[in-house]
Amino acid sequence: MISYTHFKCNQCGSDLDYAIGLHSLRCVSCGEVDPIEASPLDMYLAHDYKSAISQIDYFDPQNVNHELKCENCGAQFMLPTNVHAEECPYCDLNVVVPVALSRKLEPDGVIPFEIHQHQAETAFSQWLGGLWFAPSSLKRKAIQAQSILGSYMPMWAFDAQVYSTYSGQRGDNYTTTIRVPTKVNGRTVMKRQTVVKIRWRNRSGKVHNSFDDVMTMGTQSLPVKFQNFLSEWDLYKTQEYNNKYLSGFRSELYQIGLPEAFNMAKEVMHRTIRTTVRRDIGGDHQRIHHIDSIYQQVGFKLLLAPMWISAFSYKGKTYRYVINGQNGKAHGERPYSMFKIIGAVLAVALAAGLIYLLSNQ
User: Fold this and answer.
1) Would the CA dihedral through 245, 248, 249, 250 be positive or negative?
2) N or C: lower Cβ tally within 10 Å for the chain?
3) What was the pLDDT predicted at 261?
4) pLDDT above 70: residue 361
5) Reported confidence tier of residue 356, pLDDT bands at 50, 70, 90
């Protein structure tokens, strides 16, 4: 059996849960409040990536299950795989297992919950009702497949100075006049018409990008396609890691290791690099043939981010969704109505046809 932390009320001995938005623990029975001393994380500091990689074991991270004995009811139980904060399944006692028991890297900071469960449920309903091209019966027939769960998910934040060389082409528009056959009173005549063409020239150069806190997921519990949505955080509200913030919530260990996470961050950075290259090429159009990037001064932080997570079912299929536990924004998988999509395409095609006919007249 391994040791764990449990926060107990000094007045009545009941559980202390993190009180959302108050930076305090609060007793679930008597309401006693235990303030958490605020310690904002310095977001300008980061661990050196190269140094960390040299010290991390090849097998980090590994899937782990922690076996615990509940001090309240005496039951023995296993925490779900890669979870280090949870409730006893028999008596709901809150437990937090030290990260260092199973991971080389410990969290640097926690983004505390600011959104309550009832607010998350409201945000989900609003998101569901506002989906474009969703089946008309979705809101009425969607069934909550799982209860909504407050969970801290591991996120990596990367910094880097990136120097890139590129080759490509710059395209500049110019106008010229051509003669085209045109029907006039039943006869074919040649008329002059002004057209826009593109003059291409080869270009090459160097660009520099500075990246701060590029967020990537550290969990495999959520789809990678949620990546962009799960990057929207006010990081200046991050607190230094304190397991008191986890009491009453679930919290996961990172399952995506540092090298893999950095490769994911590179993909995010590359989109910005391409935009910078296009800007440097200039002109009206750009073609990029090759980009070679060197990543320097790479730093990282490991953060725990708050999310309300659940799923709903519709016509026999399950769709996962998340609510940002800091700002209340919702995102998730969803069904589409092919009839609405086809109708929209036909409407656009009809409108384009009418505009063409009117312009010719």
Assistant:
1) positive
2) C
3) 96
4) no
5) low
Sheet bearing 16-19, strands edge to edge: 16-19, 24-27, 33-35
Angle at 33 between CA 30 and CA 39, to 5 degrees: 155
Per-residue confidence at 359, pLDDT binned at 50, 70, 90?
low
Any idea which residue has 């027939």 for tokens? 141
Cα–Cα distance between 52 and 259 in angstroms, integer?
A: 10
3-class secondary structure per residue, 233-297: CCHHHCEECCHHHHCCCEEECCCCCHHHHHHHHHHHHHHHHHHHHHHHHCCCEEEEEEEEEEEEE
Residues 56, 227, 325, 215: is their CA dihedral positive or negative? positive
From residue 187, give the alpha-carbon distance in Å to each of 80, 90, 182: 80, 90, 8
Place of tokens 């384009």: 352
Residue among 194, 207, 202 at smallest CA distance from 171: 202
pLDDT tens-digit map of 65-74 = 899 999 889 9
Output DSSP code: residue 99.
G
Average pLDDT, the chain: 91
CA distance 237 to 161: 24
Q: Give the global pTM.
A: 0.88
Residues in the chain: 361
143-144 and 16-19 strand pairing = unpaired
Residues in CB range of 164: below 8 A, 6 or more apart: 206, 207, 208, 209, 273, 276, 277, 291, 292, 293, 294
Contact 216, 117 (CB under 8 A): no
**What letter does residue 11 receive in the DSSP assignment?**
T
Distance from C-alpha of 200 to C-alpha of 167, rounded to nearest angstrom? 13
